[in-house]
């Protein structure tokens, strides 16, 4: 899935900087929610195994659970903001710069995990988190420039969009993890609840933001095969994220991004003529090292303590 993350970032950047007729990013986000909903419905049908159980599950958990729908509308709203911010950021920043800077979601997720799930991080994990922040600072100190991109860009606006996306990612991811792990409700039922709310939210946002232009040019204005490819990657990535949240945790999901940074950088050099600066190279390396350090397994102190206790008893005897 690292390849999917890198491909999504590069493909989205490509569609936002090379298209002659720029599509509406809000419609792309909305369509992504629809596709994720349809896939989740299909997977729930497969999980239940029969039409009767499938209908009963939808009736009980979706149509008959307005409170649960309201609960899942919170992350769906936040994710909608995050996804739109990703389009804005990649319209103003190179894919590699975006990929590195977006890793600020890890400290945000770590903080939300500590506050909302009452988990603890080891000293090494906290050191790696601060190291990552230092790496991102280096990358933004003198941002790398892409020589093959001719459209007007605003790096400050792009960084502001990433900052909002990072906050949204941290909160929504941990919130959704808490909802998933607080009950035995099927992952696909939870996805359906969230994506139903997501469709309503993104559709409203689409017409509030671009309603007049959409009525004039059409909902699918500017769509190409590349745009549909971006939507496909976003859908797959979103579903994969929910699976990771269910069976692992959000911080480990975030720290799997080192390879995506490398792949995005290579693609940016080849496609957009990215000129890698010394500060970018050092910052990206620092981010990758911090990811490696965070992923190191915690030392099992239980067995060490038991061993020490047994030695004390032997000495006492």
**How far apart lie the N and C ends?**
56 Å
Mean of all residue-level pLDDT scores: 82
Provide the succession of SSEs. HHHHHHHEHHHHHEHH
What is the count of β-strands?
2
Strand order of the largest sheet: 1-2
Radius of gyration: 22 Å
Give structural notes.
With 317 residues, the protein is mainly alpha-helical. The protein is built from 14 helices and 2 strands, in the order αααααααβαααααβαα. The protein has helices spanning 2-18, 25-48, 51-63, 66-90, 95-101, 105-117, 123-141, 155-181, 187-217, 225-247, 250-254, 258-272, 278-295, 301-316; strands at residues 145-146, 274-275. Strands 1-2 form a two-stranded antiparallel sheet. The longest helix has 31 residues, at 187-217.
Describe the protein's topology:
Blueprint: H1 2-18, H2 25-48, H3 51-63, H4 66-90, H5 95-101, H6 105-117, H7 123-141, E1 145-146, H8 155-181, H9 187-217, H10 225-247, H11 250-254, H12 258-272, E2 274-275, H13 278-295, H14 301-316
Antiparallel strand pairs: 1-2
Helix pairs in contact: 1-5, 1-10, 1-12, 2-3, 2-4, 2-9, 2-10, 4-8, 4-9, 5-12, 6-8, 7-13, 12-13
In brief:
The protein has helices spanning 2-18, 25-48, 51-63, 66-90, 95-101, 105-117, 123-141, 155-181, 187-217, 225-247, 250-254, 258-272, 278-295, 301-316; strands spanning 145-146, 274-275. The protein is mainly α and 317 residues long. The radius of gyration is 22 Å and the shape is globular.
